[in-house]
Predict the structure.
Amino acid sequence: MHKKEIKTVLISQPKPTDENSPYFKLAEKYKLELDFRKFIQIEGVSLNEFRKQNVNPLDFTAVIFTSRFAIDHYFRILKDLKVELPAEMKYFCVAEGTAKYLQKYITIRKRKLFVGERSISDLIVLMKKHMKDKYIFPCSSVHTPQLTDWMDENSINYSKAIIYNTVPSDLSDLEDKKYDLICFYSPAGVEALVKNFPEWKNHDTAVAAFGPTTTKAAQEAGLTVEIEAPKPNMPSMTAAIEHYLKNISKGA
């Protein structure tokens, strides 16, 4: 197990705009040096690429949103198609933050909105009460299969709409940098590291992964994952990191 003292941390996400972010509080408490770096880039598909999928947004009674990217690019496509969704359309959002972001495009109080607590499992619980709806799932070309697997297993009438692609960022600027801890938040983030640095191994660097699919991707890439989130007593990445730091200080 990685026992080296953690002082430098690379967060593979954009820097938070909220000055009260838990990451900043964690850095202050444990005197950490944090670097934030996007490991992945989002590229929206063109209208022609969307049309080739033969998916008509008006053929569905419900739409599923699991990210803000999906919301932005779906409504971009709708605008390009000059399509307005009917008032009776149902919206299923994975979490409160996603639902609030939806207000950028629709008046929520006039719509049928169903919001999960934070996970795909929560979303599935809501969808079980609406098994007969016809769902459209705007998503990336690379996405967690938990939701689509469940819909397949339960013969849900749905179609995926690939509206953006997730591609690795150019991380060459990190080549000469070393970190005590690197935090991953998606399989695509792991893929980005491997694509940029195929020979890299985390011998002297602890690895943190958010979500089981990210952990699996990291392990399949030959990395040793020492921090996993979320856990029942560690619902966030910052909570998991703090738990790890406390164990190191205790010599656990």
User: Anything to note?
Assistant: Residues 68-81 form the longest helix (14 residues). The two ends are 10 Å apart (CA to CA). DSSP finds nine helices and eleven strands in the chain.
